[in-house]
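FORM 7B - TANDEM STRUCTURE REPORT

SECTION 1: FIRST PROTEIN
SEQUENCE AND C-ALPHA CELLS:
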Amino acid sequence: MPLPVLEATLLPPSLDEIAGSFRRSLSTNFRHVDVSVVDCPDLTLPPWSMSAPGLGGMATVADVGGVPNLIPRPRVEKEYDIADVAMLCGIPAAAVIGPSAVASEKVGKNAELVNNCQVGASNGSWYTRVTNDGGYLCERYPHTSFGLLGNLYLSEGKPGTPVIRVTARVRTGHRNFVSTMNRGLTEDFPGVVAMGGVFVVREGSTKCHVMPGFSCTPLTSDQDVEQWLRVYEMRAPLTHTSGFLNRDPGLDLRLEHSHCFSSHGDGGHYHF
C-alpha cells in the first residue's frame, strides 16, 4: 500500500541568519561558543563517518510514522524503507541520516537506530539495543528498513556546499545542545525552520536512553514511559545525527530527535 504523504514547502532564513541565532542562543547556555558558515568538510571521514561526503543538494526533512506507532501499544507492523522514503521525497539516490527505531523483526527486538545511508550505494547505520544482562551494545545495522517512527534528513550528499559549523563547550544551563539551538530559532523566526545534520560529542559523557523490549502493558502516561525506558551514561566520542524544527506547521511533527553511535559500543537517544 502506498504511503500517504503530506508536504510543506518551507522558506527558511539564510544560513548567516540562522548562524546568528545559534550564536546568540548557545551563548546563554554554554561558556565557549563559535558559530560560522563554512564549506562542508568531508563527512565520510572520522569523527563523522557518514555515508555521503556532504549535506548539500535538495535538502529535505521527513517525519515518518510517529510516536502513536509506539505508544500506548507498539504497532510492529509499521515498517518503512529508506529507499521508499527517498523516492517519495523526490531524491531516489538520497543520502539519508537521522534517528529512528529499528525494524524489530530484523534484529529480534526493539532498539534505537542511527540511519546513515546513501541509497543504492552504502550503509553506515548503527543501532543500540539493551542486552540480556541489562546493559547495552551499539553495533552495525546492515538493513535499510526501520520501524515505528523516524526523523530523517535527506539530500544529494553533495560535498563542499555551505553548512553551519557550531562548536560549544562547557554547558552552564539546563538545556541540551540541540534544544538550545532550537529555542533560538523559535525566538528569532516566526516561520517554520527545519534543520538536519550531524554533531560529535568529543569529550566527557552524555545521558541517553535505549528502548528495551516492547512493553507488555500499555504505556498511557509519561511516568509509564519513563519507567519503561533504560537510561545510561554514554562515553565520548559519540557521533549524533539530529533533526529539529522550531514549530509544527500543522502536521503533528516531532520537534527534536537525536540519536548517537560509536565504535566502542556506546549509543542511544540523546538527552544531554
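SECTION 2: SECOND PROTEIN
SEQUENCE AND C-ALPHA CELLS:
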Amino acid sequence: SSGINAEYGQHLSEVTQVTAHTMGEPEIVSATRGSECFVWDVETGLQKQQLRYNGGVQNAKYRYRNIRYGASGDTFYAVIVPIAWNNKTSSSHLVKYDTTTEIWTVIREQTVRGEPLAELAISSDESFVSTSSSNGHVYIFDAHSLGLRRRVFEAHGLFVTGLSFTSTHTDTQFKLLSVSADRECKVHNPHIADPVRFLKAAAVLLLCIGLIYLLFCLLQSSDLLPHFDDFDEDPIKKDHHHGHSHHGEL
C-alpha cells in the first residue's frame, strides 16, 4: 500500500498553494500557477467547488497566489494577482470569502494598485490580515472590513518571503514578523495605525477650517455679512446717552 488515503486531481498546472480546514466538515483548498483554485472534500477527495475571481480588469486572467482559512473556518482569504503582470495597469486583490454558504461568496475586497502582492498571514483571533509586495512593502489590514491599518513602506530591501503573527501569554497584543531575501527578520506592531493616515486626516481638517475662515472673510468684505462694529457695544449705555441728550434740550 502506498499509504495515500485520497488523491486530489484535475489540476491542469503546477500546484503552488494548499491550505486545510479541519473544523466542521474537513476541507482542503488548492491553487495552481494557472487560474485554478479548488475546494476538496478531505474524506472522499471529491471536488466540492472551484473558486473563480470575476473582479479586476475585464478579460484578464488571474491566479490565486496565496490562500488561507480564517481562524474559525467561516472565512477564507486569498491574494489574487494577474497571471500576466503589467507594472502600469495591473493591480493585486486581497479577497475575503464567506465559506458558510454552499457556494462561497466574496464579502470583502481590497485592491492594491501597481504592486504584485505575494505573502499572506492572519492572526489567530482573526483581527488582522497581512500581505506583502515584491517591492518589500508590508500591509496590515483589519480582518473584518479589510480596511488598511498600516503600510510599512520598504520594510525590506528585497521581496518579502514570509509573514507570521505571534503573541505570548504575557503580552496578548500581536506582533507581525516579516522575513525577506535581504536576510533580515523584522517585527511590526499591527495595533498601531499608520501615522501618515492621521497626518493626512489632520491636514484635510485644517484645510477645511482654513476654507471656512476664508469664505467668512470674503462674505464679510462683500457686505453680505454685518461687520462687528455695526453693532452698538452696549445698548444700555446707548439709552442712557440718549436720555442725557433729551434732558439737555429741556
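SECTION 3: OBSERVATIONS ON SECOND PROTEIN
The CA atoms of residues 127 and 144 lie 7 Å apart.
The two ends are 129 Å apart (CA to CA).

SECTION 4: SIGNATURE
Preparer initials: ____
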